[in-house]
Amino acid sequence: MATSGQPRGLRRANDPPVLILTSLADGPKHGHALARDIEEFAAVRLGPGALYGAITRLEQRGLIEPLDSDDRRRPYRITEAGTAALAEVVADMRRLADTGAARLGSGQPGAGHPGAARPGPGAPRLPKPGLADGGLA
Questions:
Q1: CA distances in angstroms from 134 to 1, 94, 109, listed in the order given
Q2: Which of 103, 136, 115 has the alpha carbon at shortest distance from 12?
Q3: Residue 92 — very low, low, confident or very high, per pLDDT cuts 50/70/90?
Q4: Distances (CA, A) of 54 to 44, 106, 112, 115, 116
Q5: pLDDT beyond 80 at 44
Q6: What is the CATH number of the domain that holds 25?
């Protein structure tokens, strides 16, 4: 569900970058705390490679930043750019969920299936296909 202005790679709810940004939106965390939080709220277990690889890419893109720490653990926080990127992803997910719900609840035969009638002018619209061409992963 990426749009033209959306950072590359933030497409699905279960993508590690989306999960990490969602966790950090609740406050700074180090890697192990991120993994525990993500497993708790999303029921997704990220291995160290997926977690730390995504952390590195998010940091390189300025979506998260490390905080100073006296501990060996390195906490991260979401940046203003990361908050904006997460807000855009959440809005895209909401549009998708609204479209799915509208199609499921339309009562039209074949709703939600290929070839089903398109939603009317007031129905939520999905972003144009073909704009999600790149990735943080």
A1: 12, 21, 36
A2: 136
A3: very high
A4: 14, 39, 33, 37, 38
A5: yes
A6: 1.10.10.10
Which CA distances in Å does 118 have to 3, 84, 93, 103, 130?
A: 21, 30, 19, 8, 19
Angstrom distance (rounded) from CA 106 to CA 8: 33
Quickly tell me which residue has 């995504």 as its tokens: 54
The pLDDT confidence band at residue 42, using thresholds 50, 70 and 90, is very high
The reply to whether 71 falls in a domain is: yes
The token pair at 122 is 């007031």
122 within domain boundaries: no
The domain total for the chain is 1
**CA gap 128, 137 in Å, rounded:** 22
Evaluate whether residue 135 is within a structural domain.
no
Average pLDDT in the 46-62 region? 97
Please state the separation of Cα 1 from the chain's center in Å: 9
Phi, psi (5° rounding) for residue 115? Answer: 85, 0
Domain that holds residue 63: 16-98
Helix (H, G, I), strand (E, B) or coil at 65: strand
Residue 36 reports pLDDT greater than 90: yes
